[in-house]
Specification:
Length: 175
């Protein structure tokens, strides 16, 4: 198996994460502690890099959902697998995702989190497959728009493979 082809390099990711962190720090300045909710597993590297570059008070939480069962074959409805550990009532919340594809996962999470009376819920995703998005979901902070290709690396996987690649890569179709 050859390595996935580079779609977004390590340095391009780093530059963009810097920019996003600067924008978020500016937007949330003087608003108290920001609760960053990383959506496991795909967002763990993005969240680690983003959160360390913020210049505002922040608190890290994780949430886990399941929507894909094997590789790219979809399992159906979104299911909550693990919840946050602390109440988000009255807090400013930023959901941190690796990628928005159909948008169903993010929409489910926004609706669920909003029902808990936070001060606000916004979304930040590293990648967006805009052409595949089926539902009207608001992305407040976006790293990169990408085409309809399966990407891996920087937290994203294909059947648990290639999550720790330092760049975003595209898997070549098998011969
Ligand atoms: P959505 O609900 O269709 O927007 O799916 C979102 C989730 O599907 C993401 O959080 C990923 O976990 C997964 N996903 C969608 N496209 C890709 C991809 O190209 N590579 C890896 N994971 C993906
Ligand atoms: Mg995800």
């Amino acid at each position: 198996m050859q390595n996935p082809k580079v779609l977004i390099s390590e340095s391009d990711i780093s530059t963009r994460v810097d920019e996003l962190a600067a924008q978020i720090s500016k937007d949330y300045a003087n608003k108290g502690e920001l609760v960053l909710i990383g959506v496991l597993k795909g967002s763990f590297i993005f969240l680690a890099d983003l959160s360390r570059r913020l210049s505002i008070p922040r608190h890290i939480e994780f949430i886990a959902v399941s929507s894909y069962e094997h590789g790219s074959i979809r399992s159906g409805a979104v299911r909550l697998v693990m919840d946050v550990r602390r109440s988000i009532e009255g807090k400013h919340v930023l959901v941190v995702e690796d990628i928005v594809d159909t948008g169903h996962t993010l929409l489910y999470l926004i609706d669920m989190l909003k029902s808990r009376n936070p001060a606000s819920v916004k979304t930040c995703t590293l990648l967006h497959k805009a052409h595949r998005t089926e539902v009207d979901v608001e992305i407040d902070y976006l790293g990169f728009n990408i085409a309809d290709e399966w990407v891996v690396g920087y937290g994203l996987d294909y059947d648990e493979k290639d999550r720790t690649l330092p760049y975003i890569g595209v898997i070549e179709p098998e011969e």
